[in-house]
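Hello K.,

You asked for the raw outputs rather than the summary table, so here they are, unedited. I folded two proteins back to back in the same session to keep the settings identical. This is the first:
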Amino acid sequence: MTELDIPWIRPELAKPSPYRWQEGIPDNVVARFDLNTLPLNPSWWPGIARTIAAQSVSSYPEADYAPLKRAIGGYLDIDPACVVPTAGGDEAILLTAWLALGRGDRAVVGRPTYQLHATSVRMTGAELDLVDPLPGPTLRLDLATITEKAKGARLVWLCSPNNPTGEDIPADTICEIAANCDGLVCVDQAYLEFGGTTDHLPLLAQCPNLVIVRTFSKGWGLGALRAGYAIASPLVAGAMDALRPPGSLSTGSALGAELACAHADTMRNDAAHYRAERERFSAGLRGLGLEVVGEAANFVLARTPWSGDDLFEKLASQGLVVRTFGHEPLLADAFRACVALPADNDTLLAALANLLSKPIPAAADPTTGASTFGRGALIERRTKETEIRLRTTLDGSGTTSVTTGVGFLDHMLTALGHHSLIDLDLTCSGDTHIDLHHTVEDCGIVLGQAIDAALGDRAGITRFGDASAPLDEALGRATVDFSGRGSSTVRIAFRDTMIGALPTTLIPHLIDCIAINARATIHVEATGEDDHHVAEAAFKALARALREAWSIDPRRGAKIASTKGSL
C-alpha cells in the first residue's frame, strides 16, 4: 500500500508536505541562520519570565483572552474586538483558510512565498491557484495576475514583506485585490515590526474582507512563546475567534505577549539595530559577488553558484546552517539567512568567501557604538552540577536579573552589572544541597566566557581599567587588563568565614573564574570592618574597572591596544 492508496484519509492529504525548518542539522552547530528568529532574548524578558513562572499551571487559560486583546489593541490603537489572539501567526493563517474555504472553492497564492499559505489551502480541500512570478531573476510577484485571479476566488494570500523575497506590496494593489475577491484577502505581515515596509492596518477601514496576520515571534523576539494574532473587522474577527480551539494559546504565552506590548519602544529600537546589521551583512554578500535577491526585516535571500542542497552540505560541515528551499524550484540555487550576532554573521561571510575563493569581508567594527547585540553574548552551560543560562550586553544600561539560589552571590553580581552598566540576565540551577562551590565557580566561568565572547578580537577597546569604591568604612580597589591572559590576584581582608550563606573563600574564587575565562588580568583589594561592606566595595570597584577597560577608545579606532598587534 502506498501513501496515495491509504483509504482512511482525504486524498489531497494522503501525501503530506509538512512545513519544516532546515532539515539535516549537524551535531556540530556553530550558528543557525535558518529560523528567522532573533539570536538573543529581549532585554525586558527576564521580568516577564518571572511573572509567568508565578502563574498557576493547573487550570486552562481564559478562553476569551480579553487582557491580551486589550494589550494588542492598545499597542496598535485599534478596537480590541478586531483582535484574535492565536498560537503564533501560523494558527491565524490556518483559521483564515478554514474560515474562507471548503471543497470546490479556489484560493490564490503567488510564488514564491511562505509555504504554509499553500499548505493551509490543501488542508481544506480547496483548489490551489498558484501564480508564477514575473519573468526575470528578481522573483517579483505577478500582482496584476493575482489581482485578476482574485475575481471569483474565496481567498487570496499575500505576504508583505514577502518571505523570502522581501517585496513590499502596495496598499492600492491590496485594495484592488480585496474589491475583486468574493471572499477573504489575507495579508501576512509577520515581519512588520522590523520596519521598512508598509503597515497595512489602515486598509481595514476600506476593505471589510481584509485579514492581517501578525506574530510575536519575529520583531518581538518571542518565538518560543508561539504567540500571534489576526486583525480583522469585528464581524470577521468574531467568526475567527469562535473557530479557534479553546485555550490554543497557553496561559504563559498569552501573558508573555500581553506584557511585551508595554515594551514596544524598546522593541522598535532593537529592530532598528537588527536592520542595520542586516544591511552590513547584505553588503558583505554583495562584496563576494553573490546576487542578493531580496532583503527585508531580519533576513537576506541570495543566489549562489551551487544548488541549495550542495551549499547546505558545504556550510553544515562547518557548523553553519542556512535555509534552503528544496520544495521550491524557483529557489533551487538560493539560500536565506537571518541576522545573527555580528561575530556569527562574520563567520558565515568568511565561510562563503573561502568557498568562493574570494577575500574575506571586513569584520564588524566594534567602534560603531552600542547596539542590542553589538557586544553581547548568550552562553549556556550544562553539567552534572549546574545548569546556567546567561545573556549579557556590555553596552547596556545596567539592567540585571540574577537568580542563582545563593542570595549574597545574586547581590554581588547585581552590583557588578549595575555599576559596570552591562545588561545581565543570569539564571543558575545548581547542586547547592551539596555546597555552593559549583554554583559560584560555574557562574564565574560563564560570566567570564560571555565577556570574552562579547569583546571579540578586542580591537578598539581601552584595555586597561582602574577604579576605587568606598562603602562606609570599607574601601575596594580593582585594576583590570584585558590582556588575553587570564589571571587574578585577590587580597580581600574578611574577618569571618561566611557572609550570609556564602563562604567568603568563594569570593576570590569567583573573581578568579571570571578573570581566567574572560582572558583578563584582574587585581582586587578591599579592607574594612564589615565583611558585607568589604565585599560590596570590592565588586563595585571591579565593576567600574571593567567598564573602563572594555570601553571603546575613539582615538584608537579599530586597532588593538598592544605593541604586539594582538592580544
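The second followed immediately with the same parameters:
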Amino acid sequence: MKRNPEALSERRFDLVIIGGGVNGAAIAREASLRSLKTALIDARDFASGTSSRSSKLIHGGLRYLAQGEIKLVREARRERKLLIKLAPHLAQPLPFLLPIYRGDPYSPLKMRLGLSIYDWLGNLGQNDRHHFYNPQETLRRVPDLRSEGLRVGAVYHDSLTDDARLSLENILDAVEHGAVVVNYAEVRNFTKNPGDDCLTSAEVVDRLTGKKHEITGRFWVNATGPWVDQVRMLLPGYDGGKTIRMTKGTHVILPCVSERYALFAAILPGERIFLMMPWHGHSLLGTTDTEYEGDPEAVQPEREEVEYLLSALNRVLREPVSAESVLGAYAGLRALVVEGGQRSPSANTREYRFHRDPWIKNLISVCGGKLTTARALAEKLVDVVRAELPSSGDEGGPSPSRELPLPGGYLRKPFEEFVKSSRDEAVLEFGIPLSSAERIVRTYGSRWRQVLEPIRGRKALAEALPGAPQVLAAEVQFSIHAEMALTPEDFLLRRSGLSWMMCAYPETASAVVDLFACENGWGAEERRAALKQFEHSIHRNTRLAAQAS
C-alpha cells in the first residue's frame, strides 16, 4: 500500500470518504468490493482518533440490554460472530467475569435473564454461553477478587480486538480492490453545483508537503467521528446545526490483575460499569463517559479520571491497586448521535445514524457507531449510495463483505492451531524468538510471512527493538513499505499491535526513529523532530502515572 496523493486528482470517483477511522475504513472496503470507484482521505493517520483509543472490544454491549437497545445488541452479536469467521486474529473470544456483591444495582436473577437474552442474540456455541458460579468457584477463577459480600460470579463471552489494526485491514482490503487511500490529507473546502445542490469537488491539502489537490466525486461520505460537524462547517450553506454529541472515555494501563478473565462490575453509586481486559501481559481498565466540548485533537486523560477508575476497580479487589502502579493512560471521544432531552452520556444511544443535510443532496454524515458494527454500517450505507448511483456497476445481491476474509484472515485451520504451527514455522525459517513469532502471527494473521520475508536478505531485521524485545525491526520496515506508516508514531501506536502499551516502552522510540530515518533518508534534524513528535504524544499519557501518585 503506497501513498500517492496525486492519484486523488486523476479520476472522478463514485464515492469519496472523508475519515479513515473504522467506519470510514469499512465503508471504503464495502464500496470497493461492490465496484464503486472509491477514495478515502484522512487529515491525520488512519485510526488516529477514536478508532485507536477504544476499549479494544468486539462486543454486543451487555449493559445496552437494560437500556432497551435490543436491535443494537442483536446486530453487534451477529457482527461479532461474523468477524471471528472473517478475521479471527482480530476478534479473539474472551471470557468476562462479573462478580455480584451485596448492594450492587443488579441481582443474580436479573443478570441470569440478561445473559440468557445475550446468548440468544448470538453466541458461538456451548463454550461461548454464560455460566454462574458460587463465591468459592468465582474466587478460584479470579483469586484477586474481594470475598466479603460476594454473592455469585457470572461468566459470559465477548471478544478482544486491536482497534487500529481492524481499521487498517479494512483499508488494506479496500486498496486491494481498487480504492485510492491517502493519510495526512485534509479537506479545506468544497465546491457545490448551484444547479442541483450537489457537491462536485473538494480541495485537499497534503499536510506533509503543503501541496493542494482537487478531488471530484459523485457521492460523498463524512465519516470523521468527533470531527463530523467541523467538516459540515465547510459545506456551502451550513446552517450551524449539530449532529453529534462528544463524550470522553479514558482508559488506564496497569500491571496484570487477571491473566485469563476480563472483569465487568458496577461503579457505585449509580448505574455505570467498568471493564478491565487482559492486554499484552498487562490490564487495560476503562472507561469514563463524560461530556466533552473541546478540540477533539486535544483530548487527553486527567488525573481525576484515573483516580475514579482505580477507585471503581479497588472496590472489588482483595488488595487495592495503587496509583503508583499506573503505567499510562489514554483518552478517546465517542461521537454519539444527538438526542432530544437531557439524557446522561451513558444513557445516550450507541446506535448509528446517517444524517442528510437538505441543502447537499449527495453527502451523508455518519453519526455514532461502534467498532463492532462498522461492517454492518458500511453495508447499509453503500446500499444507499448504490441506490442513488444506479450506473455504479454494482449488480446487487448479498454483500461480499459477509463472506470475504480481511487480509489477515485467510486461515485453513482453527485459529489457535494456526498460531501454533505458524509460530513454529517462523522460528525455524527466520531464527526469531518464539515469543516474537507468536506475537507477530497473532497480530498479522495470515500475512505474517510477508512481514518476516525480508529477513532472508537482511538479517539485521530479525533483531528486537531496545526495550520491547517482542517487537522486531522487520515490522517497522514492513509498516513503512506495506502499511503507509509515515511517522514513528504511526508504527508505535497504530501498526505495531501494541498500541498504547508503548507507554511502557519509552526507550523503544529512538530505535524506531532510526529505522524510519534509514528507510526515508532523514537527516539529524528530521530525526530529532520525529522523536520529539512521538514523545509529545506519549507524554500526555504517561504523565498520568506521576500525577495520580
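The chain has 16 helices and 20 strands.

Happy to rerun anything if the numbers look odd on your end.

Regards,
P.
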